[in-house]
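Crash report, auto-generated. Payload:
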Amino acid sequence: MSTSQTTFGPFEPVGSDKISIAILSYVCARNRQRQFDLVVREFKKSGLSQKELADRIGSTADVISRVLARPRNWEADTFARLMFGISGAMPVYQADYPFRRQVVETIDFQNKPQKNQEDVKPDLTTLGLVVGSKKEQHPKNGLDWASQFRAGRAA
Amino acid sequence: MLTYMSRQAIIQKHLGTRLFKHKSLAFQALGISQDDTARILYVSADVDAAVMYPFPETPEGERLAEFRARLDDFIEGAELSVAENPCDKPFDAMFARVRPVEKEFWSIRVTDPDDTPGIRSFGAFSDTNEFVALTWEMREDISVFDEEVEAAIAAWSDYFGSEPPYRGDNLNEYLTNNIRTV
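Recovered output after restart:
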């Protein structure tokens, strides 16, 4: 039998306490990068030129060049137009709680709790970094993801 | 007696005292290790202190948080726009080679928030997908860019002695995945 317990990190919002503006900046920056990653990877996969994408969504190649240069604070509609324009895709959203730690305790027949070290991990679902107890539920667990990435040096 | 030490041996010698293996804020906050990342980033004590939580509750703190986000994205394998020509690059390239090219130094370019000049961090590669960030400055505090590069080169020598930075023949020998040349 196992039970899980969630520990909240220092950045978790509590009650009406004001969240650090720097932490909000951090979260926004990482969110911008996640959107950017999704769009750039779809764009690379598509084989489209910037001009072709511009024509598809009624823009110009210059604008597309700027959009693909770095993560920006895109409006939701810009993000949707880019995704759909590139490949007919719509993004799937999923909540992620990177600053929480989940500890799963396994209880044996003698009622001795044993912390399963493999389950002591932050939840990084959105990054494709799910590890530990959720490892088998997600096609891209963290270690495989990182290994595949770094194996690129041999390719 | 002159003793040859590889870059990796030198890094190991400094690790935990003068150089730190960067881990993302989530892992730092939860106090757990982050052994296997897509890219490896070593930072000097100076860079480590700049991006260490808590950030000041000021506009400068927001900028440092943006810097931290960029470093966290780097190790997690995020998409990077990379400029190889220091004399001809878009103003918002995310990673760029700096002059003199033969010295093998690069800058991490943080250009957000939009209404700020951003932050530059200088360093060099120690291997493929493995970068050492040695110095950093608010962009508006950099008056002579070449002097900042010289400071980074001097910092490298301070850590690595005569051992030069890693040199690749093309961009894919520096960063293998999720890069786009601009």
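Post-recovery validation: DSSP finds five helices and four strands in chain A.
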